[in-house]
Write a structure and sequence with these properties.
heterodimer, A: 111 residues, mainly beta, 6-stranded mixed beta sheet, 5-stranded antiparallel beta sheet, B: 114 residues, 7-stranded mixed beta sheet, 54% strand, globular
Chain lengths: 111, 114
Amino acid sequence: GQQLNQSPQSMFIQEGEDVSMNCTSSSIFNTWLWYKQDPGEGPVLLIALYKAGELTSNGRLTAQFGITRKDSFLNISASIPSDVGIYFCAGRSRGNEKLTFGTGTRLTIIP
Amino acid sequence: DAGVIQSPRHEVTEMGQEVTLRCKPISGHNSLFWYRQTMMRGLELLIYFNNNVPIDDSGMPEDRFSAKMPNASFSTLKIQPSEPRDSAVYFCASSRAGITDTQYFGPGTRLTVL
């Protein structure tokens, strides 16, 4: 099935560093979502974006809905050990309940 | 509130056997989605229901896969006969009606077909 291009594929950072990841699509989306998946669990919704240009925060997480509607960004400030996991973006086009998922960014924190 | 409930959490079976995965969506949610996750293909939507009615099953791999939703609080995904390439984690997700609402995932069923 169709997937969004998500980068980077993996990140190795030290605790306290800031993190940035992004997602791009060849199609326009009307909704962008960011999920986090811990090992052995299902994806958990972090942030939902519904308008082009929208910037939304959830604690140390900030996500933006790109102006072109073809991209989105997620930033994590001052990373902590519990931030470890796989982060997925997901997009939904107008009039469609189906989500298209990104390939995921695996975040690892180096001791 | 209880989240999406899936059972079993783990299933190991032999090739050729029938496998049934179960899902209970969040109460009040009208849409239910079945996904499959593998390393190679990531998260793939298999099928989704609105108000217990299958809307889009274009992601179902082949006739060996079938899904039902007999009522608003229960859905099954069946694989018959199972094959080793069906090994994956299967997720169920639910959302309220309306395209602006978000999907909430269950913990998944890890299926291993030997």
